[in-house]
Design a protein that fits this description.
By secondary structure, the protein is of the alpha+beta class. The chain is 11% helix and 21% strand. The strands form 3 sheets. It has an 8-stranded mixed β-sheet. The radius of gyration is 21 Å and the shape is globular.
Length: 297
Amino acid sequence: MPRKKSLLKILTMISAAAVLSTSVTGCGKKIEEEPEVTGDVTLSTPPPITTVSEATTEATTTEPPPVEPEPLEKYLEYYEQNDDFVGWIRIDGITHSNGEPYIDYPVVQAEDNSYYLDKNFEKKKDAKGTIYADYKVPITGLDMADNVTLYGHSNKDRSFFRMLLDYKKLDVVRDAYIINFDTRWEEAQYVVVSCFLIGIYENQDDIPLFEYFKCRNFDTVEDYNYFYDNIMLRNYYTSGVECEYGDQFLTLSTCDYVFSDSRFVVVARKVREGEDPSVYKDTYEKNPDRHMPKKAR
């Protein structure tokens, strides 16, 4: 696993996050989008083309571009209903009294993070909203973000992401350590790595704000370390789940009510090929050294 950066370096790297007000049931704030790039952009000059005599050039072949896999047949009807549909999330370990999972929903992805705040899957006005993926990195059959963030309201009727708050209980994380998140093209499982409470304003804590919602692609080890060190600093639990640069992650975010404008976040790592995630079930333990926001102490 790559060497982690010191906490001091983490705290000097973290920038402030801003929010815009909305009026919806459940979550009451929308995370502001990152600013657009403005001003002149200087492009690097491409290297000159070198002409080589045919007599000294061996025949070369150009690899064809990758072909997007066929969508999974079981999700075709949902895409036909709504072409923003990109996948499905289900958590089997948190269930109603009849055994049905509370969280078992389609996931959409729009052109911004506002559209589905107050619209249902049929795109009709509905304060309960819909579970949606962060729009910045489109989910396709060939590509997706290194860390896909899904947002859902914490509705009082326990719909959508309200029951994520149960991850504060040790017995729940042990039962619900597996999260199923399929895209239209692939079935996949994720194993819970971190659960934490966080604010969305600088003055809600005595350390710089961790902008987890901007951690999308880890282009460098430093990008990954910033994300990993911060989710572990705040983690309610320790476990035997190991992570490394190159892993893929799923982040679930919803409103909490410990203090005004707080968020509860669950992060899971994609199960690797050939890995048996059941070995982690009994390794979760409470983390007495987790960092809690100043407003929650």
